[in-house]
Hints:
alpha+beta, Jelly Rolls, about 35% strand
Amino acid sequence: MKKLLISFFILYAAISCSAKKLQTVELDIVRLKDDSIVKVVSEVADSQEEREYGFMNRKKIPDGTGMIFVFEKDQPLSFWMKNTPTALSIAYIDRTGTIRDIFDMKPFSLEPISSTCAVRYALEVPKGWFEKNNIKVGDKIRLDSLMNQNNSN
């Protein structure tokens, strides 16, 4: 709990320094292997402008934090790292919350990293965070806190 609070305050400080403050939500990731839960405090990018900017120019992304990109419909997605100095990992997630792909991304790379199927969400975290937390393709993100956040806007 203490680590989560520290991560939340670090994320809050990072967000307050950015040009536009994004809403945050705590997401639960359920590991299929043992039904255990890993939490990530995530900024929510649900507008075109927020999705396009993402983590650009962000030099530090604290462990246990990330950004979830929310799209209106299922579609193949592709991300790149233009103007993004921090190495990231990305999970592509379908409308049921199932992680369909996990990829690592290199800072400043213009190489597109594409989902292998139609998905609704993408979650970016510091590079290696999924592996460190034993999160794999097939694990599920509980979307109820994200849906509650979107319904309150």
